[in-house]
Specification:
The protein has 163 residues and is an alpha+beta fold. Helices cover 45% and strands 13% of the residues.
């Protein structure tokens, strides 16, 4: 299944409530979704790559988490440990934009205000990369590439970190 990924605005202090409603809607139709803080997501390719690696890990019995959503969260974070991944990627009371990724099940219908996410984020600030965990030294190696590409490398590197 191709991962459908949307981005949506939410009001300050409402992200967790919005996430709960989205998760309940998905559960009610038998779909599995992941809701993330959009500031930590660098495009649809970021989430799609994480979901691909998560599915592969589950198929090969190498998964660290008990669900596709949590395994995808782990890969999206570029972290080895699920606790760190949750701290890094989850919505908080300060979240004003969320990412909704459908991972499995019947297709959910996007709500008003949900926009399809671009493949790779453009114009990513150095501060946002540092918040994700990309050091200034690593950023200096990016050259003319889209800075979001280094995030895709982090997703793929989780397989190495998990060994």
């Amino acid at each position: 299944m191709e991962t459908s990924v949307w981005v949506a605005k939410t009001e300050l202090g409402r992200a967790k409530g919005d996430m709960g409603m989205i998760l309940e809607k998905a559960r009610s139709i038998g779909a599995e979704v992941l809701v993330l803080d959009a500031d930590m997501v660098f495009g649809k390719d970021h989430v799609s790559s994480a979901a691909y690696h998560a599915r592969k890990a589950i198929d090969e019995k190498r998964n660290s988490a008990g669900s596709l959503a949590m395994e995808t969260l782990l890969y999206a974070s570029g972290q080895r440990q699920l606790n760190g991944a949750i701290d890094k990627m989850s919505v908080t009371e300060d979240t004003t934009r969320i990412v909704i990724a459908q991972l499995s099940g019947p297709e959910i219908t996007s709500e008003k205000g949900w926009e399809p996410m671009e493949p790779l984020a453009k114009g990513v600030s150095p501060e946002r990369l540092v918040k994700y965990g990309v050091s200034e030294r690593e950023q200096a190696t990016i050259g003319s590439r889209n800075p979001s590409e280094i995030i895709l490398e982090r997703v793929a590197a989780v397989d190495i970190l998990k060994k």
